[in-house]
Specification:
The chain is 70% helix and 0% strand. It has helices at residues 13-39, 44-47, 61-67, 75-106, 112-121, 127-140, 148-151, 160-170, 176-183, 188-199, 201-217, 220-225, 234-245, 250-284. Helix 4 crosses helix 8 and helix 8 (160-170) packs parallel to helix 14 (250-284). The relative contact order is 0.14. The protein is built from 14 helices and no strands. The chain is globular, with a radius of gyration of 25 Å. It is mainly α.
Length: 286
């Protein structure tokens, strides 16, 4: 009778420790979301007074109150305002930043290097440093309390981060494609729209995702430019809940916060594959 030795793989405690550490970090990062979901279902007297994560009973009326809207403005109007601003910002950044990136990455013109360096330097410029001059300009144009101050700058390639992101991606594309298009009679604009732009889809989707998330969550800029409750977004409506009813509206406020998070989560889940591809390609190429 032949006996075979059974070999056992040694337990890799280091890998187990790494996995446990990642799991602990995941729980820490997900706790605020779990707390938000639980608090949105708490009764009004437990939101502040109780430290328990789970509510004593589920208060579904918080969501019904949140769905009624604030300041006589329906939640669908608030949602539409947020989508309008976020959609306009996405469209503006994708168009203007891709055009600016194509000029820096592919075209040859005077002072291209210094202009590109100046554009990169603007990334370090705080947003609050230019907020007052921008407000004065839009106020003189009569555009305050409209959506234009929140959308129009996006069509002027003011987001240097996205320009740099797309430039890095375009520099990795083979120039032979544009040379072949030029031989066929394509000019710079036609080469951009028919050759370069389709190949930069991962970088453009990355730009769209970050622009949508940052614009959707923006509170300070919208607070500066929007006064009329009919023009409020979901972000500004959260503040209105507290101002309107003080502490008694904390439950509906957290319920509205959960509702406001849903579009961001759905948008990210729909395009996360392109996000990873775009970030990886932009970081490696160029």
């Amino acid at each position: 009778m032949t006996s075979t030795a059974v070999s056992h793989k040694p337990v890799r405690w280091g890998r187990i420790a790494v996995h446990l550490g990642c799991l602990a970090a995941l729980l820490v990062m997900l706790y605020p979301l779990a707390w938000l979901l639980a608090t949105s279902l708490k009764p009004a007297d437990e939101v502040i007074a109780s430290l328990n994560l789970l509510p004593s009973h589920l208060e579904w009326s918080n969501y019904s109150t949140a769905l009624d809207g604030v300041n006589d403005v329906s939640i669908w109007r608030l949602l539409g305002n947020s989508l309008l601003i976020a959609g306009g910002a996405v469209l503006g950044n994708v168009i203007s930043c891709s055009l600016a990136a194509y000029a820096f990455a592919r075209l040859r013109f005077r002072f291209r290097g210094p202009l590109f360096a100046f554009m990169i330097a603007t990334i370090m410029l705080p947003h609050h440093a230019v907020l007052i001059p921008q407000y004065i300009i839009f106020n003189q144009l009569g555009l305050v309390n409209t959506y234009w101050p929140l959308i129009l700058p996006k069509f002027l390639a003011t987001e240097a981060f996205f320009v740099f992101l797309i430039v890095q991606f375009m520099r990795g594309l083979p120039r032979e494609l544009e040379e072949a298009a030029r031989i066929d009679g394509c000019g710079p604009f036609r080469s951009f729209f028919q050759v370069v732009l389709p190949l930069t889809r991962p970088a453009l989707i990355t730009t769209a995702i970050f622009t949508f998330i940052w614009t959707w969550n923006d509170f300070f800029t919208q607070l500066i430019y929007l006064f009329d409750p009919e023009k409020f977004t979901l972000t500004l409506a959260l503040r209105s809940f507290v101002d309107a009813s003080s502490t008694s509206a904390f439950g509906p406020m957290f319920a509205l916060s959960v509702i406001a998070l849903l579009p961001i989560v759905l948008f990210f889940l729909a395009f996360q594959r392109f996000l990873v591809e775009g970030m990886a390609s932009s970081g490696v190429k160029g």
